[in-house]
Design a protein that fits this description.
The structure is a homodimer.
Chain A lengths: L8 H15 L6 H8 L3 H8 L2 H24 L5 H18 L7 H9 L4 H27 L9 H21 L3 H13 L3
Helix pairs in contact in A: 1-2, 1-4, 5-7, 5-8, 5-9, 7-8, 8-9
Chain A binds a DNA duplex through helix 3.
DNA sequence: TTTTATTTGGAATGAACGTTTCAAAATTAA
DNA sequence: TTAATTTTGAAACGTTCATTCCAAATAAAA
């Protein structure tokens, strides 16, 4: 019976994500979103409820796309230490692609909205847990293979790497020099070996 | 001849900084600032020109207060490696003081506004240079005293530490567990010794 | 083809935004 | 005490904000 959505939901989310990624949540207006998508206001509200929900959906899609891209690349690594290195290589590639980086949507969101909005904070907590679990798995496996030292537990190194990933993404906003970024990466890895 | 400002400019800046620190630039309204200071709109505009200028002044005051606090504490360190450790200890103290941390005003500002506003970007660049210079000085001195290894140059370790400081401040927004934060700090330092 | 459910276009909503205006109040130098 | 100069208070400015409304357009089901 009903008329059906004519637009490509995935494309729209991608377009909106670009805007949010560039300007952040608060500086992005509904008008910006209308302009970026070419959709009518009504269609946006009809399909995404409101700005907040739309942002949350962008966040979730961004996360799952990052995870997909990550596991694709990591599958090509020959060992878990190389996997960890690859994570930073992916970031370096992204940061040096454009002259100035927008940082990580999720890190930026944490800086802007953590502890202010319940649903956002929940998302960030869950994202953090997922990342820590992934990292701990990699570190533990690498420690079993004696690729990473055992001065600290897998949990501790996971936390260290997680903190470094956030710092790395922040640093990349102002520094886009490949050599400097690679130096940071190598120093981070140096701790593990 | 003139009537003179009756309010304490330093206090007002401190009050406004609290609001900006908590909510960020875009989510803070002039009404929030009026409420926080008890001043009249006119007085604010008369004394600080506009919201943007006011924010910039908060940012600069925040930076210089941090630097003052930093050099006070660092002067008590018995050697440059201890100084570096103290930097992270100060952050840990701040992060665990309140249940949930607001992060670093400057890191948050970088995430929200870098590469969007010229005067802000200039401030951030200058702040980054100052921090890197300070860190390089500490590392180089510590290397001369054989407190820090020479696997990498002072510049490289400074960059590593700078990136880690940003990550540390971001991590502290969601994690306020002292043991976890100390573990991260110790792992960061482990690289140097 | 008609019915039914839904998406659209475009205008309108009221609230909140940063900023301005201007007369009144205040203070110091003359 | 007067004159000069600035800060205040309170209201108003025009603009933009997120969101809503409703009629028109649309498309699948009957």
């Amino acid at each position: 019976m009903p008329k059906v959505e004519t637009f490509d939901r995935g494309l729209v989310i991608a377009q909106v994500t670009d805007v949010f990624h560039d300007k952040g949540f608060n500086a992005t207006s509904m008008q910006d979103i209308v302009d970026a998508t070419g959709l009518n206001r009504s269609s946006i509200y009809n399909s995404f409820e409101n700005k907040h929900n739309l942002f949350l959906e962008c966040l979730k899609t961004y996360k799952s796309k990052c995870n997909t891209q990550l596991s694709e690349k990591l599958s090509k690594a020959s060992n878990p230490l190389e996997s960890i290195e690859l994570i930073f290589d992916i970031y370096i590639l992204e940061m040096t692609k454009d002259e100035q980086d927008k940082g990580c949507l999720i890190v930026n969101c944490a800086s802007e909205m953590a502890n202010h909005d319940v649903s956002i904070t929940n998302f960030l907590q869950k994202n953090q847990n997922d990342m820590l679990t992934l990292l701990e798995g990699l570190v533990s496996k690498a420690q079993q293979d004696h690729l990473i030292n055992s001065k600290r537990t897998g949990k501790e190194y996971a936390l260290y790497l997680y903190s470094n990933m956030q710092g790395f993404r922040m640093t990349g906003i102002l520094i886009s020099n490949k050599l400097e970024l690679e130096s940071i990466k190598n120093t981070i890895i140096q701790t593990l070996i």
